[in-house]
């Protein structure tokens, strides 16, 4: 069975959408929510959390990943992302380079999906390898 059918994509987007409301984004006003699906079909959510010193800001995707990792999760299937100025999604919000690098640490580039959504019924699905080609990953540190 396709673990990432339309029903589960919509559910992830719904959860990610709720998380936009939790975003702490007083500087950019750009609110992002993410919902991360584990291989065992648990969902971990996250929002962006900004900081007056700017560089400590963390994206919604990393919040979701770090919540999951810290709870012992290690296998992931997909992440849905939705965001927009003042929490109103107009375009698709793609993950930043740092978040893609974090995804590459824990996820198979071929099997992990990134869902970019504008609404529950309007989304695009990408494999991580499409968004992060030739990435540096734990594979690079293995002995030949
Ligand atoms: N942001 C995310 O949380 N995820 C993304 O995919 C793109 C950017 C956040 C970081 C910052 O708080 C705000 O959006 C503007 O860059």
Proportion of residues in extended strands: 25-35%
- Largest sheet, order of strands side by side? 2-1-3-4-5
Largest sheet: 5 strands, mixed
Which spans have pLDDT < 50 for at least 5 consecutive residues? none
Helix count, DSSP H or I runs of 4 or more residues = 4
Question: What do you see in this structure?
Answer:
By secondary structure, this protein is α+β, with helices and mostly antiparallel strands. It contains four helices and five strands, in the order H-E-E-H-E-H-E-E-H. It has helices spanning 6-20, 60-70, 97-106, 128-131; strands at 30-38, 43-47, 76-85, 113-119, 122-127. It has a five-stranded mixed sheet. The longest helix is centred in the first third of the chain and has 15 residues, at 6-20. The protein is globular and about 50 Å long. Tetrahydrodeoxyuridine is lined by residues 25, 28, 30, 32, 48, 50, 57, 59-61, 81, 93, 95-96, 99. Residues 25, 28, 30, 32, 48, 50, 57, 59-61, 81, 93, 95-96, 99 line the site of tetrahydrodeoxyuridine.
Task: Offer a concise description of the structure.
This protein has 144 residues and is α+β, with helices and mostly antiparallel strands. It has helices spanning 6-20, 60-70, 97-106, 128-131; strands at residues 30-38, 43-47, 76-85, 113-119, 122-127. Helix content is 28%, strand content 26%.
Could you give the topology of this structure?
Elements: H1 6-20, E1 30-38, E2 43-47, H2 60-70, E3 76-85, H3 97-106, E4 113-119, E5 122-127, H4 128-131
Parallel strand pairs: 3-4
Antiparallel strand pairs: 1-2, 1-3, 4-5
Bound molecules: tetrahydrodeoxyuridine.
């Amino acid at each position: 069975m396709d673990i990432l059918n339309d029903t589960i994509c919509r559910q992830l987007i719904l959860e990610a959408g709720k998380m936009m409301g939790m975003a702490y984004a007083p500087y950019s006003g750009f609110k992002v929510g993410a919902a991360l699906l584990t291989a065992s079909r648990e969902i971990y959510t996250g929002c962006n959390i900004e900081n007056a010193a700017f560089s400590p800001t963390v994206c919604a995707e990393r919040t979701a990943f770090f919540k999951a990792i810290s709870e012992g999760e290690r296998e992931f299937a997909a992440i849905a992302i939705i965001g927009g100025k003042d929490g109103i999604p107009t375009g698709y919000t793609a993950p930043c380079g740092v978040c893609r690098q974090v995804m590459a640490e824990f996820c198979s580039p071929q099997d992990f999906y990134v869902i970019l959504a504008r609404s529950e019924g309007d989304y695009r699905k990408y494999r991580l390898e499409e968004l992060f080609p030739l990435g540096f990953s734990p594979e690079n540190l293995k002995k030949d």
